[in-house]
Amino acid sequence: MPAAPESRRSLTPVSRVLRLCLHALFLGLLALAAGRAVTGPEPHAGWTVAVCALLAAGYLAGALAPAVRNSPRAGALWLAGLGAAWAALLVLSPDGLWLAFPLYFLELHLLRLRWAIPAALVTAAAAIGGFLGHSGGAVTPGPFLGPLLGGAVAVATVLGYEALYRESERRRELIEELITTRAELAAAERDAGILAERERLAREIHDTLAQGLSSIQLLLRAAERTLPQEAPALPHIARARRAAQENLAEARRFVRALTPPDLEHGSLPAALERLCSAVRGPRVRFSLSGTARVLPTPYEVALLRIAQSALANVGRHAAAERAEITLTFMDASVTLDIVDDGTGFDPGAARAGGEGGFGLPAMRSRAESLGGLFTVESAPGQGTAVAVTLPLPVEAP
Whose CB among 68, 104, 345, 367 lies 3.0–4.6 Å from 372's, allowing a Cys bridge? Predict the structure, then answer.
């Protein structure tokens, strides 16, 4: 059976079986009508067999033609041709009445519902008229109820199947989205673990190895100044100081290599400005409030990653035209605000694991790991505002 024109979907095993059953039913009823015409007392047996053959050929041609499956206009023309040949069969033989049932299904699948229902009613009326014409005018409830009940069963069956198929498609899309989201969350957790380990190594090298080498270099330099120029140990001290200096430079190169690439070539405001200019889709503007200051690497990384995740959500879900990122430095804290004019969502549903909230837990976790506060304000149709506030570390006097 050709697929409905409004949904070009791949066939499931059940729908394939239903198509084969419909083909077999249509062709089997034609064979029955032709056989009864040949073996029975019908006066127009030759014409009946010819029309049945024409109907079978036309049906097979349409069922195999891609144009009928892909074009509503071609499907409607094919149905019109079948209907005309079927009307001729009704005139010749009362057995043509039984073809009304498969025709109902063809009309309901190939035509839009507002046209399929009238077409099914016309088919039922033709079947009733054909039966009355061959019965000699005898009126009984059977000729009226049979086609009407058959049409009602066909409509109920097709509509029920369509409802079940739509529900199945929604469940399939939900499962695919959940699988994709799980993979994204796993990748995000893996990247976060790698980044955290890089940051820890960078801090350890900077706070221990680099500081120790710097202290050794200072001590050796002081020893050089206190020893007389002709002291035998002076060349060894000079070589040790140069070795310490070279290893200190190497340690600092390790620390720079472990720094996130987005922050290698500038400050956090510069990285956020580059991020805004690289976004595709909505226009994103960056603004800085207050006096910028150098933040510890974990703070800069957390704020940058939250901005990246929030802008990714804007591009993926919000359908926004404009967005703005504001970085605000205050005396005891730093705040990052990301605001868009998109479609918005229900934050309560997002916290409960609903649609649209998959990136929020990771952003909240980053902020809270540094003792910060993460908030989301949104409503359907009113845009979204994401804010994160991190307390600045107390500087040593």
Answer: 367
Q: Give the CATH number of domain 263-391; options: 3.30.565.10, 3.40.50.620, 3.20.20.30, 3.40.50.300.
A: 3.30.565.10
Domain boundaries along the sequence of the chain? 13-139, 181-262, 263-391
pLDDT at 266: 65
Under a CB-based contact definition with an 8 Å cutoff, are residues 329 and 307 in contact?
Answer: no
31-35, 141-145, 314-318 — which one is most confidently predicted on average?
A: 31-35
